[in-house]
Amino acid sequence: MIVKTRFAPSPTGYLHIGGARTALFSWAFARKHGGQFVLRIEDTDLERSTQESIKAIHDGMSWLGLDHDEGPFYQMERLQRYQDVAQQLLENGQAYYCYASKEELDEMRRQQLAAGLKPRYDGRWRDSKQTPPPDIKPVIRFKNPLSGYISFTDLIKGKISVANNELDDLVLIRSDGVPTYNFSVVLDDLDMNITHVIRGDDHVNNTPRQINIIRALDAQLPEYAHVPMILGANGERLSKRHGAVSVTQYREDGYLPEALVNYLARLGWSHGDEEVFSREQLVEWFDLSSISRSPAKFNPEKLCWLNQQYLKKADNDRLAELTSFFLSRKGCNYHQGPDLSKIVDLLKERINTVEELANAAVFFFRSIEPSEELKQQFLTMEGRTILADLREELAQLENWDRESIHQAIKDIVKKHAVKFPKVAMPLRVIIAGETQTPSIDAVLEILGRDETLKRMNTQLKECSKE
Ligand code: GLU
Known about the structure:
- This protein is mainly alpha-helical.
- It is about 45% helix and about 10% strand.
- The protein binds glutamic acid.
- Glutamic acid binds near residues 9 and 203.
C-alpha cells in the first residue's frame, strides 16, 4: 500500500497557523512512509472562496517547503463527478430528492428547539410519495442508516462510536448542483486514493457521516487521524489576538521558514525532549501516535526563540539576501556600502528576526543622527576630546583590521586613563547613533576607514559648534 495523505484547505482566508500545522503533519506522514502528498482546494463555498486565498495557500505552502506530489485539485472542477455519484445513489435508493423550502426547514427547526429537541432534518421527503412542488429546486439528501452504530478507531483519539439515530439525512448536492463538504470530501478522498485522512478535530463529528457515505458506495475506509486544536496562551481558541497571523505574515515579519516548521511540528507533537530539529529529522521521527490528545498551546515567545536559533546557524549569504529585502523596504540602499554578508555575520547572534537584523544593519549604510539625550550624555567635552585623539590614531593605522582598531582604542584608553566604555560608548553613538552595537572594533572594520573617519569628523565638528 502506498501511503497517501492530503491537505484540503477551503480558500476562504489566509493560510493560518492551524492549517499550516495540519498540512505539515500530513506532509511529514507521507514523506516518512515514502508516500504521496496531495493538495486539494475545497472551493465549493462560492461566496467565501477567493483567488487571493488560493494564492495565499500556495505561497504559504511553498514558503514552508511543503511540496505536494499531486494537485492542486479544485473541487469546482469536479462537479460532474459529484453529480454522477449522487445520481447513482439516487438510483440505488440510497439518496433522495428533498423539496422542503427554506421557510419549511426554518419552521421545523423552530418547533424542535421549542420542544427542547436537537434541531435536525426530520426525513419528511425520505420515503415520501407526495407530488413534488413545481416551484422548488430540490436538494439531494443521503439516506443515513436509521439504526446501529458507526465506530472507527481514530489514530490519535482512539475508538469513536456514534449512534446512527444521532445523525440526520445530510444534503449531498445543493439545489444549485454544488456538493456539500461532507459529500465532496468523501468522493475526493476515495478518487484520490487517500489512505490517511489527517485533519483538524473540528471535523471529527463529520467523520461518522462520511463513513456512512463511503459504506453506501461500498468503498474502503481510509484511516483517520484528528489533530487536536491549537489554543492561545490564555486557553482560548487561537485567534489573531494571540499572534496567530497568516503564515506568510511570519515571512513578512522576518521569521525563517525552517523555524516555523520546527515550531509547528512541536505544536502538539513531540519526539522525546527534542526542541530544535531539522525537517529531515522531523520526517524520520514523525509518527501519529506521538501527537498529543489534548490541545496544543501557541507560544509566540518560543517561536521567537526558535527563530533566533535558526538565524544563528543560517548561511550568511542567504541571510544577506533576506535582509536586503527588508533594507529596500526601508529605502536603504545596501548596494552602496560594506558587504552585507559580513554585516549579518556580525549581527546575527543578537537578533530574533530578519527584520531586526535589517534594523540593526541600517547604520552601516547611512549615518544615523544620535538623539539629543545621547549627545548630551556621551558627546561631552571630555568624550569629544578623547574621540578627536582616537580619530588621529585611527587615521594613521597601518592596517584597518579588527585587532589594530582594538589596539588603537586601548592606546587611547590608556593615554586618557579612562575605562574602555568611556571611549567605546561615544564612539558607538557617533558611528551608529546608538549605544547598542556589536563589538565596536568589528563594526569599524566592516564600516571601513573612510566612512568611520567621515562620521567622526562630521559629528565632532557638529558638536564643537554647539
Ligand atoms: N476543507 C476543510 C477545511 O478547510 C478540510 C476538510 C478535511 O480535511 O476533510 O476545514
